[in-house]
Amino acid sequence: MKKASLKLKVYRSLRLDIVSGKLPGGTRITENAVADSLNVSRTPVREALQKLSQERLLLAIPKAGYIVEDLSDNDIQDLFTIRMEIEQITIKKAIDHITVDELKNLDDNLEQTKVLIKSGEDFKVTELDIDFHTIIYKAARSKTLFRVCKNLSDLTIKYRHGLNLVPSLWNELLQQHINIYQALISKDKEKTSHAIALHAQHAKKHLINVMQKVRSDAFSQEDF
Fold first, then answer.
1. Which pairs count as long-range contacts for 103-108, CB under 8 Å and 24+ apart, including other chains?
2. pLDDT attached to residue 223
3. pTM of the model
């Protein structure tokens, strides 16, 4: 197996274990342990762990490996609630400052998302989801709001990956982004605030059910 495809296989295996809860929060992960469990060399494992760390799915601990973030279901709900409140403030400011180029970038993002949904590329759908919101954060023209929003967004990445493990939710995500985009074009602050709030509410609604499902699926595939 080529190095690139082996790295991808290790990465996908670890990512699924993390977002499904098979590797619960607080679990310590080391290169040697993963290499032994997957019967591969340490090099693709090291590269996969570094990528997962960059994506905030793992926390790197100097000289001790990595730790899976530990949040309860209530913590996750709180995180999405706070993110919703902050994004409502941010998008109202974005209406006043968003440029034609930024609206074009949002439109391009929606078109790319449509293509990736058809091809079933779940990880890239999540990346585009993050990019869509980042464009709006920048459009608010507030360094403080941008830092706060990006920090909250980074903290939710793991759970957004979890949501995107269920393809039936992808088109719902896309439609909500379309609604946000159309509301921004209309420059109607009430409509835009409602669109972003509805988007977050749907994410919260599905999140726990989806995480329970993927945890159950992972458990059912265990060898006993």
1. 103/181, 103/184, 103/185, 105/135, 106/132, 106/135, 106/136, 106/181, 106/184, 107/181
2. 47
3. 0.72
